[in-house]
Amino acid sequence: xxxxxxxxxxxxxxxxxxxxxxxxxxxxxxxxxxxxxxxxxxxxxxxxxxxxxxxxxxxxxxxxxxxxxxxxxxxxxxxxxxxxxxxxxxxxxxxxxxxxxxxxxxxxxxxxxxxxxxxxxxxxxxxxxxxxxxxxxxxxxxxxxxxxxxxxxxxxxxxxxxxxxxxxxxxxxxxxxxxxxxxxxxxxxxxxxxxxxxxxxxxxxxxxxxxxxxxxxxxxxxxxxxxxxxxxxxxxxxxxxxxxxxxxxxxxxxxxxxxxxxxxxxxxxxxxxxxxxxxxxxxxxxxxxxxxxxxxxxxxxxxxxxxxxxxxxxxxxxxxxxxxxxxxxxxxxxxxxxxxxxxxxxxxxxxxxxxxxxxxxxxxxxxxxxxxxxxxxxxxxxxxxxxxxxxxxxxxxxxxxxxxxxxxxxxxxxxxxxxxxxxxxxxxxxxxxxxxxxx
Length: 439
Fold this sequence. Notes:
Elements: H1 2-17, E1 20-28, E2 37-45, E3 48-54, E4 65-68, E5 73-76, E6 78-83, E7 88-89, E8 92-93, H2 100-112, E9 115-120, H3 126-136, E10 144-147, E11 152-154, E12 170-172, H4 175-187, E13 192-196, H5 209-221, E14 225-229, H6 233-241, E15 246-247, H7 258-267, E16 270-271, H8 276-281, H9 295-298, H10 303-310, H11 312-319, H12 327-344, E17 347-348, H13 363-374, H14 379-393, E18 411-414, E19 428-433, E20 436-437
Parallel strand pairs: 1-4, 1-5, 6-9, 9-10, 11-12, 13-14, 14-15, 16-17
Antiparallel strand pairs: 1-2, 2-3, 5-18, 7-8, 18-19, 19-20
Helix pairs in contact: 4-5, 6-7, 13-14
């Protein structure tokens, strides 16, 4: 019996050691915004970091799998606070596309680009929450899901006329409707509440503050953050004053002013996401783009979609938008507003609005970081926003968002230094999620 127990203990130790990974000889960019640490090492035990520091202080556990990453750079996984999962195949958005198979493919694409967590913002069926719960019951090896469940708009409001969106959000006609919807979402244990407050440049009804305020209040009563798609400065002010937690897009109609900045700082409201790539996506396809043939883009986009983007017919259709001449200006306003908010000390997170047609998961997250640098932020600021800050918005910073002892090993191994050039985030060699190689 004693021999059996000794053998069992030995087998248990061997099994445990097989779960230990050691990374060494890399430069650590931990996400906190400080100077990188060269000649760094990390020990990952059952998915969690037990050591992150100089190689000189490394003690390699017996039987650990060791990876020599000499010349490489390690940063935290990217956290996207604004996405839409599962509803799109190629350039078609339809709730019928939301299958377990398509969702798994979507998550695998995000993971391959180092996007280790995504918040799906208001277009999710029950399946999204089911898969999320399955992930949380173990150690995921694919992108982590956070979900706002079903979002809210007014009757026939934006975005119900967009492809595949009718019947997706709640269409609220009374305060009671909004409260009931929040209660249903809360019962499903969503991670936050989303609403759309926009008239699509005057084309569609916009939910008024009298109906959006009760949604915000109901969310708070259930201990949930509230987030809003906005476009106009005036709406941003009204919603933040009412207690909204996050602006899911940039203000784009005019420059943000001191009144909004003071309100956001007083209320603790976030610029949850700037979504600069969302703004560029509505006009960039009007002309041929070199990135269509970039392997970093084309590896996750079907040849038929690339052919469609390259077609003169598609480009003509983009240019035919009545508001097309205005669209580049909205991007520039968004970039300037992002810079102003960051400089003023407003809390800022990271997001892209990827998922709908022609807003490509994975590739757009790296493009977003590039546009943020174009807006005047440093690569270090952008990385901190996309990792540490975004984990804080989700209230998960105790578990990931930075690479520190005790946290899950959600990380990206890069071939080049992203602090020297933000485009180097594209030089991905390996992605780990909870210490597992992403798949």
